[in-house]
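Entry type: protein chain
Record version: 2
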Amino acid sequence: MFELKKLISSFIYPFPIFLISSALALYLLQRGNRRRAKILFVFSFAWITILSYPPFSALLLKPLENAYPKVQLHSPFPRYIHVLGNGHTSSQNIPLSSELSLTSLARVNEGILLYKSHPGMKLIFSGYGGGDSVSNARKNSQLAIALGVNSNDIVILEEAKDTAEEAIAVKKIVGSQPLILVTSASHMVRASSIFRKNGICVIEAPTDFLVKKEDTLWQFPSSGGLRRSECAFHEYLGLLWEKLKGSL
């Protein structure tokens, strides 16, 4: 089911839709259907241009990223910090910090900052390896240890493939105790809802913000704008999927 979900979703993101519609337009043009081919070409380029336009992509992402503010902790402090997994590539030819994706780096750094700001906390890393021989949880923990975190204060959950499985796994550890949840700001709405659905007392600590300031209208479409739209699509599709499954 997990692999099927990934396969289907890969075809309904902004850039794949652009490629599919462009390919279909070329096919129609080859078959002599110039009118429909022209309509599809116009749609394809309008679609990718709008979704690459930074102010528009910000409108898509802001409702997700603004749902939770920067975390403010108050005594008594929670014992556990859970950093959700993302991606990495194991390689002996590059530094450890470069093996992690930018999203993973942001999440791990936020987890470490929270860990070091209040003594006595435990860091939980989760995430499977995907096609990599090393799990994302273990790779993230390696960076945390390299940056000064005591290995005795780290718990790794290497089997969880998605957010729902991460919630189920960590529930067995924290029980009814409060948990600081660290993930990307865009992902926090879905992650927090899933964790709360599983009976976990969550304190949201969003990081990895992609919309950091107000965009001016006088901008050109860019890869950064498209990345934000892709991120928004990923989360809205994820929310829809969880609702269809009854997980939210």
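Comment: Residues 112 and 147 are 8 Å apart (CA to CA).
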